Please model this.
Amino acid sequence: MAAPADRLPPAPVDRDWPMTPGYVARATAGRAILRDDPHRPRYHACPPVGWMNDPNGVIQHGGRWHLFYQHNPRASVHADMHWGYMSSPDLVHWDDHACALRPEDGTYDAQGIWSGNAVVADDGAPTLFYTGVRAGPNDRHEYQLVCIADVRDGFTRFAKDPGNPVIPATPLGMDLEQYRDPVEWRGRAGSPNTWLLAIGAGFPGVGGTALVYGSDDLRHWEYLHPMAVGNASVREPVWTGIMWECPDFYEDPASGKGVLLLNAWDHGVQHVVASTGDVDETGTRLQATRTSAFDGGAFYAPQSFWDAKGRRIQFGWLRESRPATVYGPAGWAGVMSLPRVLRVTPDGRLAGSPAPETAALRRDHVPVVPSAGTRHGVELHEAHFELSLRFDAVGTGRCGARVRCSPDGQEATFVGYDPAAGGLIVDRSQSSVDRVNSSTTSLTPLVITDGASFTVRIFGDGSVIEAFIEDEGGCIANIGDRIYPTRPDSLRMSVEGTTFVGGDAWVMADTWRSRA
Model:
């Protein structure tokens, strides 16, 4: 049988094709062709075909949720970056649209439309910010430029600004390790700048940074100073890298803290870090009082925004942990996390729980009842599911579930709290009999107080695993990862834990509308 990629309609070589209805037609056909891939998610946002990575320009506007993303529309490899585009009326059911932005040969973005953000301007119109990369030597930051595009006619047209790039160079005389991925926000009332922008960078021999700019019109920007600077030589409590990719900043009114999410980067090494602390009177400097790992799985490059309900909603990219020799022929690669609602915990960490809207996807409820011993059966055999498991204390050993298990136990993945490991884990050591796939254990550090009750929530969706630990105050830890069971009968699950007191399981519905 031909590989899925070979069964997709051919992608035209015309550079304008991704921006046309022809792209949407191929996307719709592609979703139908790829739907039977056992590793393909059904209720997580994923590309119709081709490659997906960072979420970009995520925004709620005009009664819909708009999610742009790094996308190669012609192949499932990391190349030829466009801004893909999908939208939703309810945060869980998605529609594919033609790509919003494409590279223009011979210009400031000829080498790709890379990551950025979106804001709503004073006139009520959204403005997209992105990193344009022009031709030049590989891996040179002076060829990474801040550009903008206007959203027009109800998100049906996207016009690049004639003044691009709006930040054409790094600050004068500044030696930097990389420079990319702008994020913008409205300045505080009474502050010198109407708009603020931070861009990820690094100081050679020092560590990562987010460089802050100010503007009154979104088009003319003045460099101000670093928001914060990391120390790449320090590994504990968490390593913050030589450069910060895709910074994301906001002030949290519930805790009174500033929140800086950064993606610690070094060549070949990346992970997500959250810093919380005090913001100065200008709203442009952060003095971190807590820096910690945010998500120890395949989760990367998250982006968050305020919705109409005053919630801080976040999406992140769940990276492939199988090799390109496998996902290339599959015809697709990359997945978005579930939408998460962020909170600063009482001890100053950042955590995110699944948006309540995801409950609309629950079907076929099955109660999970404690039994004698430390393992409890779940009468649900499914690859697309949600589990909610309650524990009245940590007890001894792991608290969570073995999911995607084959009847003989040859394949299985444990997801949950492991006090010996020191946090919320996804143990992939037995996830797949195909050893080409990753078999490591992922960890988000966490210590649950003895005697405290908590809930472990686990979402499985083909190759996607997301898990959350919640106490009476809300989410306290999260992790998103990828697994690739190969056996078609790896659908069983069971609960582990001496303190398990009951739970619920559901089949989760398909969210894709398969229409333009």
In short: Residues 194 and 358 are 35 Å apart (CA to CA).
